[in-house]
Amino acid sequence: MSNADLTAPARAAAPDVVEPRTRAEPMAPEQRRAMIAEQAVPLFLEHGAALTTRQLAEHLGIAEGTIFRAFGDKESLMRAAVEAFFAQGRARMVAGLVDPSLPLPDKVAALVSGTRTWTSRMMRMLSLVPRDEIRQILSGPRDHVYRDAVAAVFAPEADQLAIPVERLGSIMRIAGMAANAARFDEDAGLSDDELVHVILYGIAGVPRGKD
Fold it and tell me: What is the pLDDT of residues 100-119, one digit of tens each?
């Protein structure tokens, strides 16, 4: 057998083994900013303002300079992360709202629990921005989404409630903020059951059979 016969199969297989590499398309600046801001949210929730750009860069597997080129400074990064949190959080809150067919007490209990968790995270994220910017953030264009979704959930019981369903979202949010008062006063904290009782009978009146 000739040397040509021995080497022919290897040459024939070579094209199947060696494949040219292609470079991924570069990310547009706005896409890069959005990606960094969104992925920074859980780290800011964990570390607060103490999170460093170096920690974030290591978490994302990018150079620290990439963050500064995208945002300019840490303050701009934190604002972008807060905006991303609200965009994500409201969408998830609406998607996870309870089934409108559930009994009224179960609806209130589910919303109290979800709103309380959301509010705790919201307050942590809002601590990243100056106080004079908080009102603008809370009254942003997406602010009505949660209120509208809560109103839709309680629409079947609208005639049983003491207040318009359109106001329930605001009440739920205020209750969630009040529930976190334990951060400042340990005796002021309320359990989920206590909040459910206050909200349920505050909006629906005294339960039947009781004075």
Answer: 888 988 988 888 888 888 88
How many domains does the chain fold into?
2
Residues 120 and 64 in one domain: no
122 and 174 Cβ atoms separated by less than 8 Å: no
Say how many C-beta atoms besides its own lie within 10 A of residue 13's C-beta: 10
Crossing angle between the packed helical segments 64-71 and 53-60, to the nearest 10 degrees? 110
Question: Which range of residues forms the domain containing residue 189?
Answer: 96-211
Compute CA 56 distance to the chain's CA centroid, rounded to the nearest angstrom: 18
**Residue type present at position 32:** R
Do both 58 and 162 map to the same domain? no
Contact (Cβ atoms closer than 8 angstroms) between residue 43 and residue 59:
yes
**Looking at the structure, do residues 160 and 67 belong to the same domain, yes or no?**
no
Based on the domain organization, do 122 and 209 belong to the same domain? yes
pTM (2 d.p.) = 0.69
In this model, does residue 201 exceed pLDDT 70? yes
- Scan for tokens 């300019």, then name that residue: 72
Given a contact cutoff of 8 angstroms between Cβ atoms, the answer to whether 54 and 132 are in contact is: no
Reported residue count of the chain is 211
Q: What is the pLDDT of residue 35?
A: 95
